[in-house]
Amino acid sequence: MFISNKTVQQFITELDAQKPQKYDNSIKVNWINEVEQNLYSKVIEEYIKDDTQYANVSVFPLDIKTDLGIEFEDIRKVYVDGIEYSKMSLAYTPDGSYFKNDEKLDISKRPTGPVNVSIVYRERPTIKTVDTINTDKINLPDQHIKIITYYCFQHIHLLNKEYAEAQNWIALYNDAVADFIQWYEERKASYGN
């Protein structure tokens, strides 16, 4: 995961100095979260493997939001007792498949007794809050933080009903995202992905 040298508070202070406005820090933190979550969901490919042994199989369906703090859509692979399960829809669930069941992870054939579950899922930054802006860092490389700056400027102009200016900033945002994607694709292999 990328971690910049800039805290969220430092970013907000610089943003306010560049474009003074009346909007609360909570709004700006939400904008930061929107950009980071979008990039880590669609562009940045970093994965975590969680290995957990459960005493019994009643763990399924597994509440991944509570137990692991992830979304079902972030899951890439599921292994139960070393056997890989394939993603399936609830309409057709052959043996050896996993699926979403009421926002929980479920499997088609449950083993008996203790079970080892390994889940490989896409890593995303922790959601930032106003309470943690002094310690949370921006989760992008320093040279690409301008992506968030442009996104924030665009929203400031939209809220002020300055649509032409907003359109200019969204164009800059889109260009910065395209530059980041190219930069990331050229370096992705060196990060072990």
Walk me through the structure.
Helices cover 37% and strands 19% of the residues. It has two domains: 8-44 and 126-187, no CATH class; 47-122, no CATH class. It has a six-stranded mixed sheet with strand order 1-6-2-3-4-5, with no helix packed on it. The radius of gyration is 20 Å and the shape is elongated. The protein contains five helices and six strands. By secondary structure, it is α+β, with helices and mostly antiparallel strands. The model has no long low-confidence stretch (mean pLDDT 89).
Mean pLDDT value: 89
As a whole number of angstroms, the C-alpha radius of gyration is 20 Å
User: What count of domains describes the coordinates?
Assistant: 2
- Structural shape: elongated
| Number of DSSP strand runs | 6
Order of helix and strand elements from N to C terminus: HHEHEEEEEHH
Q: Give the helix proportion (percent range).
A: 25-40%
Counting helices, strands and paired strands, the structural category is alpha+beta
Low-confidence stretches: none
Q: What is the topology, as strand order, of the major beta sheet?
A: 1-6-2-3-4-5
The largest pleated sheet is described as:
6 strands, mixed
User: Approximately how much beta-strand content do the residues carry?
Assistant: 15-25%
